[in-house]
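Components:
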Amino acid sequence: MDAQSSAVGTVAKTESATAVRLRFTPQPEHVRTARLVAVAHARRVGVEAGLLDEVRLAVGEACSRAVGLHQRHCPGEPVVVVLDAVDSTGSGLAPDRFVVIVADKVSGAVPSPRGEGEGAANAADAGEAAAQGAAAEAADDEELDDAEMGLAVLTGLVDDLDISAGPDGGAVRMGWPVKEF
Amino acid sequence: MDLKLETRDENGRTIVKVGGEIDVYTAPKLREQLVELVGAGKYHLIVDMEDVDFLDSTGLGVLVGGLKRVRAHDGSLRLVCTQERILKIFRITGLTKVFPISDSVEQAVTAVD
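Structure:
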């Protein structure tokens, strides 16, 4: 099992009957579709309305990143997105987290945001520091590295975030609380 | 939703009114517009984002690229934005320190950069 399948499999172990899986060719126009589906599903499983903009932006960023990676390295491979409400504590009660995994097939693709390790106290600070560095360097670079800016946004936006990579692919995993019914 | 772009000149500035979603699919259209304007000698730009429904890092990258291009000609790029969900993205990335941001086009056209 490769890393992309493995990442999806991690969710599948606890996948609920309401889980949604998307597979799309790595084309920018499909990222909007993924955003729309993610927000619709988040709303349906009970993510608070005030968090839906965050879900929309974060899923868009993760999918844009995956599309960019696939276009450069494996344009024939689809990007896989899994959306699910899970019982993260294993309590057997109602799901308490809305989890999104965006899996890619590109090995070792976990670039560190610029500015990381500069003493940022938390993820938001790290994202801000990263972007400040990126913005400053844009004065010298012809094009800003969108992937780095995307990671800065993700890091600053999502508290429950894990970006992993393996020899056969990587995944961005994000989670948000589900309100009690 | 497609990206809508309108341009007009006012008080020596060129106002680019942007509507819709700026993302990885539509951002190239905005980049093309900004490159065209700079190529036509328009170095003082105001990007009106009041009708923008969505902005991601690709859009941020295009705006930073536009800023770099006008600055190469001693120009300016000012944003008009009052939407909290859009401003939040600029704050997260620290770009509020890079872009001057006005509350209205009227304020932006009279601002001193």
